[in-house]
Amino acid sequence: MASLTVHHLRRSQSERVIWLCEELGIPYHLECHDRVPPLMLAPDSLRQLHWSGTAPVIQDGEVTLAESTAIFEYILNKHGNGQLVVSPTDSNYADYLLWFHQANGSLMPALMSIMLGRMKGDSDESPTQAIMQQRINANLQAMDRQLEKLSYLAGDEFTAADCMSVWGLTTFRLFHPFDLTEYPNIVSYLQRIGQRDAYQRAVQKGDPGMSPILSAVPPPTSI
């Protein structure tokens, strides 16, 4: 019986933790939680698990842990057996660290700021929205340049940095559609990701029936 339990909020960034476990091939138990309308926020069941009140949350024996990057480091170090990480002695170690932290450190905060600003009715030309859009553009441009020369973000081998990075470019666009046409290398990368068996399993286990957005232009949809 698996000691590791992954708590997943449907259509949320906790998708990444399921995917990581599938890539590592480790046993885990999956508990899914549904969003509460009309605001589609996390239910009280997650708040009862951890003060953060949202996913991802994992339980492993007596440990209850939140925060995506903390969970990734915990699983990789405790259960990963050296898989999907880059050694400090490798030449691409700095790239691995950058892209491992870039998603939640830079891209997602800017995307969330734009999305919430639009929900409040802020104009895209407002100073705050314009600054956040510039940050998004800079992040996507850097990612596209990286993927022009490499198959994956840290090199030609798939790593946990990829697991961390993809959700903001795919499932998040169900909430906040944006166009990736200007970034052909990112789009090609997403197509490669979409062919991975572990990614397909993770999406269908966490969100059965959901089609991840792997194209440049997201289809018309709603949450």
From TrEMBL:
PROSITE patterns: GST_CTER, GST_NTER. InterPro entries: Glutathione-S-Trfase_C-like, Glutathione-S-Trfase_C_sf, Glutathione_S-Trfase, Glutathione_S-Trfase_N, GST_C, Thioredoxin-like_sf. Residues 1-83 form the GST N-terminal domain. Residues 89-213 form the GST C-terminal domain. It holds the Pfam family GST_C. Belongs to the GST superfamily. This is Glutathione S-transferase.
